[in-house]
Amino acid sequence: MGETRLHPMSHIARRMFELLEPICLVTFFADECNEELAALGHRTYWDGYFASRAAPLGRVPAQVVHAAFYNFADGEAARHIPSAWETIPPEASVAARQRGSAASLRRILGAELAASPGLRRAADLTTKAATGAPTEGRMMYAGMRTLQVPRDPVARLWHSATMLREHRGDGHIAALLGARIGGTEAHVLSALEMGIHPPESFGRIHHLPNERLAAVMDGLRERGLVDKDSHFTDAGRATKHRIETLTDELAVPPYDALSPAERDELITELEPITAILLAAGSQ
Fold this sequence. Notes:
Blueprint: H1 10-29, H2 31-40, H3 45-54, H4 62-69, H5 90-109, H6 111-114, H7 117-130, H8 139-145, H9 153-178, H10 183-193, H11 210-222, H12 234-250, H13 260-279
Helix pairs in contact: 1-2, 1-5, 1-9, 1-12, 1-13, 2-5, 3-5, 5-9, 7-9, 7-13, 8-9, 9-12
């Protein structure tokens, strides 16, 4: 896809993703969220993950969670949904996720930055963007929009960044579907882009049965996206680039709610926050 065809705001969507993703990832990389979910009674990390992330969808069956999450293998959602909700209400799980994630941010950023006017302003602008986009076709984002936005600035920053992450994720799934790339195939393409070889060793898929991984790789070879040595072909690399470009374009709408000056201000306020999180390993 040539540069002249890019949406003029795509670079903003990409930059916001780079700045907001480390804020969201404390949920998975730091201890506080896992500790909050375990204290509720969730037996494993994945029980807490599925129960808390899927909670905004309501008490839907595993098939719906599998469809919304997209990139998990068949049967993985069903190992946790609905059993993870049988004794722990979904509302309790999503609240624990928010408490733990906000606590991680406060610890990593430190008391001064967590209470600063800059972080408060970043939370306000992120919330303005996150609550200003259409929900049509955005299942996970629409679910997050039903939740109350926290008043505390640190919790609000995490919550709104996570809304934007789910909005982008919904668009990414649309881009993958348009390219006829399934969830496991998407992990293979991501592994190759990150220089992981063989791609089957990627942590998100290495646990899958060998037969399943072999079938996925064979399918990608038949389509000319990877070669016999499991490296990208030119067509495969171009396909991955088109998916990422379209993902950026589909992630633009929330930032239309901000003026150019507000977008610049948000980037300025987020940069020191993100730098500290990246240094702490949230990536």
